[in-house]
Amino acid sequence: MNQFLIAPSILSADFARLGEDTANVLAAGADVVHFDVMDNHYVPNLTIGPAVCKALRDYGITAPIDVHLMVKPVDRLVPDFAEAGASYISFHPEASEHIDRTLQLIKSHGCKAGMVFNPATPLSYLDYVMDKLDVILLMSVNPGFGGQSFIPHTLDKLRQVRQRIDESGYDIRLEVDGGVKVDNIGDIAAAGADMFVAGSAIFNAPDYRAVIDQMRAELAK
Ligand code: DX5
Ligand code: ZN
After folding, report:
1. Engineered SS bond to 199: which of 117, 120, 133, 146, CB 3.0-4.6 Å?
2. ipTM of this model?
3. Is 31 considered catalytic here?
4. Which Gene Ontology BP terms does the record give (predicted)?
5. Closest approach atom of ligand 1 to CA 38
6. Peptide bond into 119 cis (omega under 30)
7. How many separate domains does the chain show?
8. Binding site for substrate, residues?
9. CATH number of the domain that 202 lies in?
């Protein structure tokens, strides 16, 4: 199994001091910056775009940036995010007219490609694309907002996807997003996840390092 990656969602960071807050969470031991893009169309909220991603790079953030696109349409934003310094670009298959084309577009721009599954999105979307995926992201809340509770049936879905990844033989990360906390990250890892998004659990705490250390301690059990 690959090393575990902790990816704080900057949706819960201080947007007025985003560069500094992102640098602080990385200095506290985070591996990846999770970057939530919402368009008030695919999801009922509005956040940040490529200019903010580029601003983080210009500020000196060198860690991987994991762009989670909750937008429709998808394709037009892919080149812009690649140009802005995205490392991973993941999208929701329901939001793309041509899933295979979107995956190829992401990879042709030199980024790692991911597909995101809402709590009720069927795993059949994986059927013909496993060879093109670097990440499978399971949403453990309905997308749109931070601070929601983890939906328990995600654990079952994680186990199913872990099995599909292992059987495929491909090197694919299994990421989980929504309601991840110190007290459930161990169960989530046991179900097969190896990349953990956590927004409110980290950014709403007074000491980022303390939370990340506690998460790593749970992962090491
Ligand atoms: C929700 C976003 C998440 C969110 C997670 O649509 O995709 O990344 O920020 O926040 P928490 O960890 O607070 O559930
Ligand atoms: Zn997200």
Report:
1. 146
2. 0.99
3. no
4. pentose catabolic process; pentose-phosphate shunt
5. 6
6. no
7. 1
8. 9, 68, 144-147, 177-179, 199-200
9. 3.20.20.70
User: Is the beta carbon of 28 within 6 A of some atom in ligand 1?
Assistant: no
Model pLDDT for residues 153-190, shown as the tens digit of each residue: 999 999 999 999 999 999 999 999 999 999 999 999 99
Rounded CA separation 43/62 (Å): 29
176 lines ligand 1 (CB under 6 A): no
List all residues 6 or more positions away from 181 whose beta carbon is below 8 Å from its beta carbon: 150, 198, 201
Q: What 3-state class would DSSP assign to 36?
A: strand
Could you list which residues have their CB under 5 Å from ion ligand 2? 36, 68, 177
Written as six digits, the tokens of 212 are 């990340």
100 carries an active-site annotation: no
Beta-carbon contacts of residue 24 (< 8 Å; ≥ 6 apart): 208
The whole domain housing 63 covers 5-219
Ligand 1 test: best mutation among 11, 33, 117, most atoms within 8 Å of CB? 11
CB 174 within 8 A of CB 5: no
Tell which residue, 128, 197, 140, has the closest CA to residue 164.
128
Q: Residue 89 is inside which H or E element, if any?
A: strand 88-91
Count of C-beta atoms within a 10 Å radius of residue 209: 15
